[in-house]
């Protein structure tokens, strides 16, 4: 049996989809995407640990690597080239706002606005919070088991942060994803709620029962531990400034109209700019507000040849086209 | 999209009952607020007088969002010949009155989306919202003055919604 091959066609695509995965900051291990084994993954069901951030707009890659030449002779002619530096940036806009897209585009720590305690002193990133609720045994990634009296303090539709108490530790904190770096207990006022203030382990409550809270989405850190507590949150806040750099692994996919696929994998991305928005007019004065995000690519070592690289571009051709 | 269209109409209809409870019409033997959706009534050669008529025209969809954003154009037509008591000499005032009423009907420019296909109407998770109205110039035909107003209505499609 034989099949006639098709002549090469230019890739035609209409949009770019973004996936992010947390970098293990403690062990300095990025998430590695292998296009040879996973390149044709279902766009709606990315493999773990990749998180679907949806279709993005304004996707722009730029290589800022610098080259130098060695010229000899009279007149001088370039005999050799060398790379002086390897550098690359990538920028785009998230179409929708969520904990993750806002945090990725914020450039620094991203915080949860915990429900304030009565009479708490006003503060720009949220004041002292209401007391957290203990978890009971039997919790899952989508069910927070707790006493009926505690569950009754929440309502369906509310949002919650689920994480451990801050207990004076320094270094990266946050379950599932390193949310920030604590330099000292005094810098965070030894606030027992601090980890829940920055954690990515948040979800929307879909139902309140006598057994606990049913969540509308899975917790990013999966099944909660018994030491975690639950606090209601009202929204999110980020700041211009701050000392922390988020670091994420990223994968961008351009699905082609003929079944081909272009993939861009950045194992390590750090924010290149502070928070910014971009507006797209609908019908004046209505505007759609997107989150602008820009990153610098950091290097990893390719296990195949030991080269230091910052980005992998893969191309999976459509069926039966000549290559 | 049907939920959004229904919500927009019912919202304006309910607001009309408080803005001007006297603007009513007799339609299919029932006294109702003076606003109707053209595509939901029997075809008619002429628009009824002193009634707001909603006509849905263009529709566009942004499918690159997790929840599709739909924009629909609604033309609102109304015609008046003034009152018989004044021999139609008040038709300009009558039209201006309808202009002012329509502005009130359209404000605030959003409403919670409802599903009216269930026996008890059920509230949905998102809002329908719309643009400021664009008023066309007055058209005169014999003793009647007409105006067309265009509003763009936006709605996010919810999961499983038609």
Concise summary:
The complex is a heterodimer of chains A (323) and B (162). Chain A has 323 residues and is mainly beta.
Characterise the protein shown here.
The complex is a heterodimer of chains A (323) and B (162). Helices cover 7% and strands 41% of the residues of chain A. Chain A is mainly beta and 323 residues long. In chain A, the strands form five sheets. In chain A, strands 6, 7, 8, 9, 12, 13 and 14 form a seven-stranded antiparallel beta sheet that branches. Chain A has a six-stranded antiparallel barrel with strand order 1-2-5-18-16-15. A two-stranded antiparallel ribbon of chain A has the order 3-4. In chain A, strand 19 and strand 20 form a beta hairpin. The mean pLDDT of chain A is 94. Chain B is of the alpha+beta class and 162 residues long. Helix content of chain B is 20%, strand content 41%. Chain B contains two helices and ten strands, in the order αβββββαβββββ. Chain B has helices at residues 2-19, 91-105; strands at 24-27, 30-33, 35-37, 52-62, 69-80, 110-115, 122-130, 134-135, 139-141, 144-156. Chain B is globular, with a radius of gyration of 17 Å. The model of chain B has no long low-confidence stretch (mean pLDDT 94). Chain A binds chain B through residues 15, 54-55, 57, 95-96, 282-286, 288, and chain B through 64-66, 69, 71, 129, 131-132, 152, 154.
Descriptive keywords:
heterodimer; A: 323 residues; mainly beta; seven-stranded antiparallel β-sheet; six-stranded antiparallel β-barrel; 4 helices; 21 strands; 7% helix; globular; B: 162 residues; alpha+beta; STM4215-like; eight-stranded mixed β-sheet; two-stranded antiparallel sheet; 41% strand
């Amino acid at each position: 049996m034989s099949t006639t091959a098709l002549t090469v066609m230019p890739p035609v695509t209409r949009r770019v989809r973004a996936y992010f995965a947390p970098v293990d900051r403690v062990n300095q291990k990025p998430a590695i995407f292998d296009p040879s084994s996973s390149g044709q993954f279902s766009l709606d069901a990315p493999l773990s640990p990749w998180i679907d951030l949806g279709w993005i707009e304004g996707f722009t890659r730029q290589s800022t690597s610098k080259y130098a030449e060695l010229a000899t002779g009279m007149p001088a002619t370039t005999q050799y080239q060398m790379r002086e530096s390897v550098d690359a940036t990538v920028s785009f806009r998230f179409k929708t706002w969520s904990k993750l897209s806002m945090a990725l585009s914020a450039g620094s720590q991203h915080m949860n606005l915990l429900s304030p305690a009565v009479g708490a002193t006003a503060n720009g990133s949220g004041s002292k919070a209401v007391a957290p609720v203990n978890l009971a045994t039997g919790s899952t990634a989508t069910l927070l088991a707790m006493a009926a009296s505690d569950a009754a303090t929440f309502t369906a539709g509310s949002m919650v942060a689920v994480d451990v108490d801050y207990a004076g530790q320094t270094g990266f904190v946050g379950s599932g994803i390193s949310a920030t770096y604590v330099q000292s207990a005094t810098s965070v006022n030894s606030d027992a709620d601090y980890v829940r203030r920055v954690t990515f382990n948040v979800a929307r409550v879909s139902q309140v029962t006598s057994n606990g809270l049913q969540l509308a989405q899975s917790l990013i850190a999966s099944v909660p531990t018994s030491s975690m507590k639950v606090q209601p949150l009202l929204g999110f806040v980020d700041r211009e400034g701050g000392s922390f750099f988020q670091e994420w692994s990223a994968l961008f996919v351009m699905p082609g109209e003929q079944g081909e696929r272009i993939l861009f994998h950045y194992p390590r991305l750090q924010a290149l700019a502070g928070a910014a928005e971009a507006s797209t007019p609908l019908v004046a004065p209505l505007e759609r507000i997107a989150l602008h995000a820009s990153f610098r690519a950091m290097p990893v070592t390719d296990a195949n040849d030991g080269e230091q690289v910052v980005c992998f571009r893969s191309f999976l051709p459509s069926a039966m086209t000549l290559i | 999209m049907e939920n959004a269209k229904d919500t927009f109409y019912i919202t304006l209809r309910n607001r009309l009952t408080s803005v001007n409870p006297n603007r009513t019409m007799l339609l299919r033997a029932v006294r109702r607020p003076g606003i109707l959706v053209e595509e939901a009534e029997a075809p008619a050669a002429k628009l009824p007088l002193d009634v707001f008529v909603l006509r849905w025209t263009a529709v566009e969809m942004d499918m690159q969002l997790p929840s599709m954003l739909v924009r629909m154009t609604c033309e609102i037509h109304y015609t008046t010949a003034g009152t018989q008591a004044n021999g139609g000499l008040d038709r300009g005032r009558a039209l201006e009155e309808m202009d002012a009423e329509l502005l009130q009907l359209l404000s605030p420019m959003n409403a919670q989306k409802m599903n009216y296909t269930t026996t008890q109407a059920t509230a949905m998770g998102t809002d329908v919202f719309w643009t400021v109205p664009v008023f066309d110039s007055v058209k005169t035909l014999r003793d009647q003055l007409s105006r067309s107003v265009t509003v763009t209505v936006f709605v996010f499609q919810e999961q499983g919604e038609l």
